């Protein structure tokens, strides 16, 4: 279906996944042009776009006019916009008029209560997808969870000798530090080894949070990194870890990318998100749920092995399964059970 098709992909940068999506589309025969949705990825630019986009309108408009100059002679079959936090309406009007018959596809992996910018342009899109089941119901969108990339899938069934019993890798926000440090203490008490990596995109942001957020008051400065891990570095940590700790943002109910990476890797998951029980791949042998305010673990969970997921469900959790669904190549019915409960 995508063989020989021209696809315009506009996405914010999110841990190289925009490039992996581009590569997957190309592997399926499409010609893909990828552009960053943001004019800049500085801390200031990200913050101003998220909270006061109109103050950055001139910069945004200039940036998208520049994109128009680059693509005006190309005829696209599909336009995929991921997140939709900065794309102006005049750009969407141009795409519609310059590409008769183009199909507009919107996908967001953020909850609208965290970032509502995408709601302003949602009506431009024939196909609308969100990873958040509550948003899917409220805004009458298609529900489509996230995915795992093939690099993670390749780990499945490999390596039974792990250097780490548990690992947490993530951006420092909300109560992530306090929860993961409690997990580390528990691991030490039970002679288990835990690896932690905390990332902050800005020293200024981190210092501000230490002053204003009680969850950051006791954050050890030596434990924070201002350089994110590469995709391959994270895959290597997964390769050497039996169980991954996932701490979702308190304001989101959609499952994180970490959830799919973990299970796709054949690794066991400890998560703070109880909604995972609704999903077709949930199995208590693979997934252990903790309460944010009452953190408890079980040693038996670390002793048992990963139970393989049904192949059809696992395929739908992959990046290829995600592309097939958002581009209308396939319709995966088992996600509907998440919305019914």
Overview of this protein structure:
The protein has 341 residues and is of the alpha/beta class. It has two domains: 6-147 and 319-340, Rossmann fold, CATH 3.40.50; 151-315, Rossmann fold. The protein is built from 14 helices and twelve strands. The chain has a six-stranded parallel β-sheet with strand order 2-1-3-4-5-6. Strands 9-8-7-10-11-12 form a six-stranded parallel β-sheet, with helices on both faces. Helix 1 (17-27) links the parallel strand 1 and strand 2 (31-36). The protein is globular, with a radius of gyration of 21 Å. It starts with 5 loop residues before the first strand and ends with a helix. The relative contact order is 0.12. The model has no long low-confidence stretch (mean pLDDT 92). This is Lipopolysaccharide biosynthesis protein.
In a few lines, what is going on in this structure?
By secondary structure, this protein is of the alpha/beta class.
Beginning-to-end CA distance, first to last residue: 34 Å
Shape: globular
How are the strands of the largest sheet arranged?
A: 2-1-3-4-5-6
Q: What is the N-to-C order of secondary-structure elements (H for helix, E for strand)? A: EHEHHEHEEHEHEHEHEHEHEEHHHH
Give the fraction of residues assigned to helices. 25-40%
Q: What is the oligomeric state here?
A: single chain
Integer average pLDDT? 92
Low-pLDDT segments: none
Q: Number of helix segments?
A: 14
CATH architecture of the largest domain: 3-Layer(aba) Sandwich
